[in-house]
Recover the amino acids of this structure.
């Protein structure tokens, strides 16, 4: 997609853990559609998503979504990037419905109508009024995925989109990614060990 606009631009990204250097001067141009981040365990897939979200602080480099730089316009950047750590326990005390309702204040493009379709597709209705800590790993994943696909952000980051899902929910995610792959303005960056079957990819980042 040589003529596609750049939705997320990364220049000179530097980051590492005390025991391992992950990125030294990483440059990325993320275009509309679905981009896959892949590689072996421990290569930095999840860390890269957290860096792109602004959830981890890079040692150096710049990140910009639609011209809004993370270091200069943090609030504007963060409302344009949807990310939820699938391992988070930060929202455990509130209900699934309470978490989803809270997203309006963080993402201006959040769509209630899209969310309603996702709740139905993922069969989440029986779980909406349960505290998140009571949900199974699969049900929690469905809540995070519903949030991600309803957020309406220019950039959506998803770690292992099919993990812990039942077969019907995997089909829903596959359909959503098919739609995402054809979007002219928005970018989805997914991290996984292998490419999702039959999903046209805008690019592949191998770590």
């Amino acid at each position: 997609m040589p003529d596609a606009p750049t939705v997320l631009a990364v220049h000179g990204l530097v980051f590492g853990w005390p025991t391992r250097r992950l990125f030294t001067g990483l440059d990325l141009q993320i275009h509309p559609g679905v981009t896959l981040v892949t590689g072996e365990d421990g290569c930095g897939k999840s860390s890269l998503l957290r860096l792109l979200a602004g959830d981890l602080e890079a040692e150096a480099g710049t990140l910009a979504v639609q011209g809004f730089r993370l270091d200069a316009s943090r609030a504007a950047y963060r409302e344009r990037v949807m990310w939820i750590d699938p391992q988070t326990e930060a929202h455990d005390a509130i209900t699934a419905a309470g978490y989803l309702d809270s997203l309006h204040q963080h993402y201006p493009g959040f769509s209630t109508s899209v969310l309603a379709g996702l709740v139905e597709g993922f069969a989440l209705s029986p779980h909406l009024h349960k505290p998140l800590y009571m949900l199974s790993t699969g049900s929690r994943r469905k809540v995070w995925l519903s949030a991600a696909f309803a957020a309406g952000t220019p950039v959506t980051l998803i770690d292992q989109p099919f993990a812990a899902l039942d077969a019907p929910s995997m089909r829903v995610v596959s359909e959503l990614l098919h739609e995402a792959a054809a979007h002219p303005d928005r970018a989805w960056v997914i991290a996984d060990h292998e490419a999702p079957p039959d999903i046209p990819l805008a690019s592949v980042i191998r770590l």
